[in-house]
Amino acid sequence: MIPIAKPFASDEEVAHVRDVILSGMMASGDVVHEFEQKFAEYCGTNFGVATTNGTTALHAALLAAGVKPGDEVIVPAFTFFASASSVSMCGAKPVFADILPDTYNIDPKSIEEKITDKTKAVIGVHIFGQCCNAPAIADICKKHNLTFIEDAAQAHGASWNGVKAGALGDMATFSFYPTKNMTTGEGGMVVTNDKTLADVIRVLCNHGQTEKYLHTMLGYNYRMTNVHAAIGLEQLMRVDGFTATRQRNARIFSEGITAEGLTVPYVAPEAVHVYHQYVLRVEDSFPMTRDELMQYLADKGIGSAVHYPIPLHKQPYYAEENKDMVLPVAEDAAKRVLSLPVHPAVTEEECRYIVDVINNI
Ligand SMILES: Cc1ncc(COP(=O)(O)O)c(C=O)c1O
User: Fold this and answer.
1) CA 56 remoteness from chain centre
2) Contacting residues for 196 by C-beta, under 8 A, at least 6 apart
3) Ligand 1 — pocket residues by CB below 6 A?
4) Is 212 helix (H, G, I), strand (E, B) or coil?
């Protein structure tokens, strides 16, 4: 089976982790600081604060933006659960916006419709590795005095008009989960150009401690360890290579798949897409349903996955309070999308095999 995801690890990651373990300095320390600096620099930002995962990065960023109970935060309905659950973790309400049918990213028009006097922030997810229209969102946020947080969990190295994911909003959060474009095992990072926000996030992620045993706010233990950062430093040196292979694989799919009723990903002219996922859209004119296609591919040894089968306003946890909400584009996308294996371990030959299997249906 060609798996839908396969994390890369080499002797270099193993050697770096070994060195850190044998140094005895396994908790957060110099290795984490080096990773924070280098990753922030990679994004074109001044500050990075490493965390335990992408969800805690979002939680810390939202808290630093001052999001509290009673506030609302606008979130796209078509994303991973954590983009919204992190808002709920602040005691605030995620307000779901619809998406654009071509990129699956949040629709700036839908954001404007959802703004109330309780809105505090907007989370713009860069879904599947393509940036959302950040300049349009930044304008809306500026006009309404809202904080713009990029959820860049899937978008390491992506850019919009030449500006990297991470440097497009007031803050941005990343995930380094093993299936992501680069990994630390589990891990996350908040990056920003705002020193005040970076300082607050650092305190929030370290028990609210401004000096040893002096706790000035309610904080958490969201610190990354040196062991995880060692993996991150090795992966950061390779991430552009991983991306190039993902882009090559995506090119083979997009140029090769000609089957009637399948729509290949649209890439906005402003975007450099890093293909965290390569997502096909199964139209009604295709001879199989999305789920039948998934089974057919599995029978041919090709893994695939649905990202995401249930839009967030329909998730059991959020469904009751949103029972009258209709977001037609997100709801339609959830029924039609299918991700193919695009990760760097998929060879050119395997990509061509996948294209042939699909075109021969
Ligand atoms: C868009 C998005 N946001 C947030 C997260 C949460 O990241 P983590 O799994 O590292 O907590 C993910 C992870 O899948 C994600 O895809």
Assistant:
1) 13
2) none
3) 53-55, 79-80, 82-83, 125, 151, 153-154, 175, 177, 188
4) coil
CB 166 within 8 A of CB 152: yes
- Written as six digits, the tokens of 305 are 């996955």
Query: In angstroms, how far is CA 184 from the centroid of its own chain?
Result: 15
Measured distance CA(136)–CA(268) in Å, rounded: 14
**pTM for this prediction:** 0.98
Identify the residue whose tokens are 């796209």: 76
Q: Which residue has the tokens 């908040």?
A: 190
pLDDT confidence bin for 122, thresholds 50/70/90: very high
Tens digit of pLDDT for each residue in 58-95? 999 999 999 999 999 999 999 999 999 999 999 999 99
pLDDT band at 111 (very low <50, low <70, confident <90, very high): very high
CATH code for the domain defined by 239-359: 3.90.1150.10
Distances (CA, A) of 172 to 49, 90, 278, 317, 346: 11, 17, 23, 25, 29
Compute, in degrees rounded to 10, the torsion defined by CA atoms 11, 13, 18, 21. Answer: -170
CA of 260 to the centre of ligand 1 (A): 33
Q: Which fold, 11-234?
A: Aspartate Aminotransferase; domain 2 (3.40.640)
Which of 51, 55, 183 most suits a substitution to test ligand 1, by most atoms within 8 Å of the C-beta? 55
Q: Is the peptide bond before 308 cis (omega within 30 degrees of 0)?
A: yes
CB-based contacts of 200: which residues, under 8 Å, 6+ apart?
Answer: 64
pLDDT tens-place string over residues 146-198: 999 999 999 999 999 999 999 999 999 999 999 999 999 999 999 999 999 99
Q: β-strands 119-125, 93-97: how paired?
A: unpaired
Percent of the chain as helix, strand, coil, to the nearest 5: 40, 20, 40
**Domain regions of the chain by residue span:** 11-234, 239-359
Nearest-angstrom CA–CA distance, 78 and 307: 9
**The token pair that represents 165 in the structure block:** 């994911």
Cα 40 to chain centroid distance, Å, stands at: 16
The kind and range of the H/E element at 262 are strand 262-263
